[in-house]
Automatic annotation (TrEMBL):
Keywords: DNA-binding, Transcription, Transcription regulation. PROSITE patterns: HTH_GNTR. InterPro entries: GntR_C, TF_FadR/GntR_C, Tscrpt_reg_HTH_GntR, WH-like_DNA-bd_sf, WH_DNA-bd_sf. This is GntR family transcriptional regulator. PANTHER family: HTH-TYPE TRANSCRIPTIONAL REGULATOR LGOR-RELATED, TRANSCRIPTIONAL REGULATOR, GNTR FAMILY. It comes from the Bacteria. SMART domains: FCD, HTH_GNTR. Pfam families: FCD (PF07729), GntR (PF00392). Signal peptide: none annotated. Residues 6-74 form the HTH gntR-type domain. The keyword Transcription regulation applies.
Amino acid sequence: MKHSAHAVTDAAVATIRERIERQVYPAGAMLPSQRQLAEELAISRASLREALSTLEALGMVAIRPGKGVYVNDASARRGVAWRFADQISLADTYQLRYALEGFAARLAAHAASASEIEWLTDNVETMKGALIDGDVDTAAQLDFAFHLRIVGLAGNAAIADILRGSTEIVMESQRLPFYQRELVLSTYHEHLEILDALRRRDGAAAGAAMERHIVLAAQRAGIHFPIPSAYSSAGGLTLRENAERTDAPHVQL
């Protein structure tokens, strides 16, 4: 079966990351040349470059033009621990949210009233202010409220109960991406895309925007999970491309 370019890149990211974590490529080491690595992974140089850009955005490697790609020290990578590892993995948390919230957003687009759109708009702008001020806890609470409101609009009580019953876990998964300081306003821009689709009552666009948001939030938290080919458009941006697309300001927390 022919794989999409994005699926090939996902696989390359996962393989290189695993090698780094198992110290096949230890901290400070230079990765094999791009030609050698592309041959080892059986991918094109273009797909490899995209994978390396994603790994650089995650803090795993440093790309030094003309010199090579080097593995960052562990202290230079994202170091925020996942507090709920004994209950559920962070990757599983994002995948659960991806599965449930994309569906909920599709339903919500056909149920959102003008007053609900106004509430969501106020929430998004207030969250932007919290992020600019460096108030991560408030931003995470507003983020959770935004997502839960959309689930409520969908009218699926089972999905709402799952998220409400896992409030602390979901909120922590929303807080972690904010520690990528140079991308701190990415969540704001992604919420705007979801909101725009809801305002237009475009269920397909709302679902895709929600799924893309969760994929990119997971990447900012250091998680890069594979997306089934049927959904590949939801995760089609690397962190670097997303930052360029949204022109996200650099905000120091």
